[in-house]
Amino acid sequence: MGARSGAPRGSEPASAVTAGTAPVLEVEDLRVRLRTPRGPADVVNGLSYTVGPGETVAVVGESGSGKSVSVLALLGLLPARVATVTGRAVLQGEDLLTMKPERLRQVRGPGAGMVFQDPMTSLNPVLTVGRQLVEGIRAHGDVSKEAARSRAADLLGEVGLPDPKGALDRYPHELSGGMRQRVVIAIALSNSPALLIADEATTALDVTVQAQIIDLIENLQADRGTGVIWITHDLGVVAGIADRVLVMYGGRCVEDGTVDDVLERPAHPYTRGLLGALPDLARPAVDGVVPDLATVPGTPPAPTDLPEGCVFWPRCPVRGDARCEHEQPPLVQIQGLDRHFGPSGLPHRAATWCTEPTSDTGLPASGTGSTALGGDR
Amino acid sequence: MSSDVLVSVRGLEVHFPVRGEGIRKKGAGVLRAVDGVDLDILRGETLGLVGESGCGKSTLGNAVLRLIPSTGGSVHFAGTDVTSVGGKGLRELRRRAGMVFQDPFASLDPRRTVAQTVSEPLEVHGLRSGRRERAARVGELLELVGLDPAVAGRYPHEFSGGQRQRVGIARALAGEPDFLVCDEAIASLDVSVQAQVLNLLRRLQKQLGLTLLFISHDLSAVRHISDRIAVMYLGRIVEIGPASAVGSDPQMPYTQALLSAVPLPHPALERERKRIVLRGDVPSPSAVPSGCRFRTRCPYVFEPCDDVDPALQPAGAAGQQAACHLHGVVGTPVERTPEGVTAEP
Ligand SMILES: Nc1ncnc2c1ncn2[C@@H]1O[C@H](COP(=O)(O)OP(=O)(O)OP(=O)(O)O)[C@@H](O)[C@H]1O
Ligand code: SF4
Ligand SMILES: [Mg+2]
Questions:
Q1: pLDDT for residue B96 is more than 90
Q2: How many domains does chain B have?
Q3: Where in the sequence is the domain holding B256, given as residue range(s)?
Q4: Nearest to B213 by CA among B196, B194, B232, B195
Q5: Which CATH class is domain A18-242?
Q6: A65, closest residue in chain B (CA to CA)
Q7: Bias regions of kind Polar residues — which residues (chain A) (predicted)?
Q8: Which residues of chain B make contact with A2, given a CB cutoff of 8 A?
């Protein structure tokens, strides 16, 4: 990724927010309930966040935490038969959740582009790359076929495909995984959307290719001021790309803040647990001994069977407050200590009964390196 | 062969025939999944094997365990040539060398209880005679991997991914093996569960004196669990050495690029870090470049790289080796070395 120009980074104020520019996307109290054979599942439970122009918001969490569903719901991509979506999601002034389906389809291309983990979910295997790009470009603008084709070739060049003109006539299966993902990005960007949603977009790729794709998205974002929602389970990727981070667990946001605050000064026991569980290349052996990883015991809860009280309490190593098992902690600004307001002055919030510091030392040690989370059992 | 070498691989090749594609290219018709691997795995060590998708990691692991046939070279296990043993010799190898697979969902039979799954190797190898002895052993094995022996009667779908992986490990341990190949054993698990399984493997390795070949594309996990790391590129080991040396001071340009691309969970560090972004894609293993197989993407490529295939040679720390002419153009396998190559780095 090397040079990172343009997009605001964690340690600087997220310009979109502080400079008063209108956010690209404003999500308020998003809730999604899915009908499942095992009964209703509350997959997303009250998510609120904004994405400014040129800003990258990372949504992290383990499988089943509701990350993907939360963005599919925004774009009306969940079947209405099984999904009940409530809340507000305002994209450039219009609420996506109350929009008519036709309008939503119109808005989707120029408003929001999507890149999924498997490029083949977005590509049609029997159509050439060129045809798919041209269709996307012409669906949202009055462009001649020739103009669309030359724009398609330009886009493929921009995303770094060698021989972009020739690539127009290739079929998806003739390309490598990394090349396919570049094509998907080209399609997602073909209408210069204000918002790009990347859902585990680099998870299936090798790290070297992942680095190329991240580089690409960062450069395009810097050029165009695109707001990005980056969904991933990989905290390393988050550290490299995000301005702000939202940690999801059991369909709730349990912590959010600037990337520096959340990764360097995690407040929620779950965030601390996740960071401690990560093998870390930058934290090598001490006297030749690599310490065991801290682990979070147990597994994430099923959305059909969320615990009462704090969603994390059954796995929480520091639970102890009388409220943990009965009362859901609200997502609130972490109070009391200056160092918990990031250098940016942007809020750092957590939903836990256990981190309200009484004194400077009243805080449990920061997540990295903590071994308080139990052994391998 | 030194006595502390448990698995010794020499010149191992696994070539697959391929149809069509690139008829005019040199080496057409052959996919070189494993293409001349020399590797010693020491008794009691965890050797990590990393490399990009398709570089041949799984094929190498499978060939070492004789799950697939090799087309050249040899594999010695505990001093015995097992390259083409059959019958009793192969059964003994199956008992002493096992596999933990990536997908705990796919590798367990959904219709069999945990007890049936774990005790099968006991029956196959005739390790416990009576049913009661086998049940007792199954209980021990489940405890060993951190599961409650009371779950023996349950079916795989009643378990989480991490628990299923523990069942897979218990099954692999049933024959009291010396050697386990773990092929992407944590790849489909959540981060918090990955840590549990990594810790478990480390504990078992120490407790039972196991030798592990830990195959993964996750360099951070490999660095964490391994004593030594081997890096594979297009069917060949291109660097090997102590985990600390390979992990923090790699000597082969490919390893350097690979490591620099691993994202680290430290925002400040990530902002400073320089990435070596490699050009292009990995070439197809059915069209391996001449000379150094990394030369089409290597930022340092120079004259000898086009023609001379670099052999592993000492580079960097003690015990570290890299296959790269930057460390001097020396001893490539005799039949591959063009005569009279003189090149100054
Ligand atoms: N039975 C087979 N027939 C033909 N080609 C094969 C066969 N098995 C593997 N290959 C090819 O051999 C090469 C090496 O594959 P292998 O699965 O060993 O790679 P890998 O390093 O394990 O990759 P990954 O990280 O994706 O698991 C690939 O090009 C693969 O397509
Ligand atoms: S031998 Fe040459 S091409 Fe290969 S890694 Fe070394 S410098 Fe690069
Ligand atoms: Mg593999």
A1: yes
A2: 1
A3: 249-345
A4: B232
A5: alpha beta
A6: B190
A7: 355-371
A8: 273-275, 277
